[in-house]
Design goal:
Layout lengths: L1 H23 L11 E2 L10 E2 L5 H9 L24 H27 L2 H27 L20 H23 L4 H22 L10
Antiparallel strand pairs: 1-2
Helix pairs in contact: 1-6, 2-4, 3-4, 3-5, 4-6, 5-6
Length: 222
């Protein structure tokens, strides 16, 4: 589990840096990262690409064509659901991640309102990405026989942004929070659930980089 978390955080850093290099070179930003599902024990399949057709993935792929940054980069969608019950530690971590996605989707309402018009498409793409990740996590938990936490009526976002710069700071903080929750879910999860958490980690770091033009050396935690 520890090695899985480390590799996921390294992958997220590399993906964020690749986006920044592409933007600096005025080149197309890479599309969503598609993790590979490990081969089954029966050996009937080799590596099968994870599903990438969710609304979030579509929004991310569209947004990545903007050289200003990978604002809407989304996880590529939850890998094929499994009926295998999820371990309790994974259920807890994935539930916290889902609650973070609910809060992120809520936060992008006021964030969008405070941004300058040129940044609002970027915020809408991020909002759509979080909705897709929320739906994917809900499906993943349900297919694993676990309850999916519902959204709260409202969330405490701290002090309201006073200007567009404050809205950008809030957006970056939202993405960093989701990245931390995703990294925390990689370790206790396994199989498709681990791939889903790692995909959200990578996507949230890329979205944060789209706002701040910076990437932490090892994002997703302290």
């Amino acid at each position: 589990p520890g090695l899985a978390v480390l590799l996921a955080r390294v992958a997220a850093a590399h993906a964020g840096l690749a986006d920044l290099l592409a933007a600096a070179a005025a080149r197309p930003v890479p599309g969503p990262v598609v993790p590979q599902t490990p081969a089954t024990d029966a050996g009937t399949d080799t590596a099968t690409p994870a599903a990438a057709g969710s609304a979030a993935g579509t929004a991310g792929a569209t947004a990545t064509g903007n050289p200003s940054g990978p604002a809407g980069t989304a996880s590529p969608g939850t890998p094929r659901p499994t009926s295998t019950p999820l371990p309790s530690a994974a259920v807890t971590a994935l539930g916290r991640l889902l609650q973070g996605e609910h809060a992120a989707a809520y936060a992008y309402g006021p964030i969008t309102a405070w941004l300058v018009p040129a940044q609002r498409d970027q915020a809408r793409a991020c909002w759509q990405a979080h909705l897709g990740e929320r739906d994917d996590l809900t499906t993943l938990l349900s297919s694993g026989g676990a309850p999916a936490p519902a959204a709260s009526p409202a969330y405490d976002l701290g002090d309201a942004p006073a200007n567009p710069a404050g809205a950008v700071t809030l957006a970056s903080g939202v993405e960093d929070r989701v990245a931390t929750l995703a990294a925390a879910a990689v370790g206790p999860a396994s199989g498709p659930a681990r791939l889903a958490a790692a995909g959200i980690l990578v996507a949230s770091v890329r979205r944060s980089a789209g706002w701040t033009r910076t990437v932490a050396a090892l994002p997703g935690g302290n």
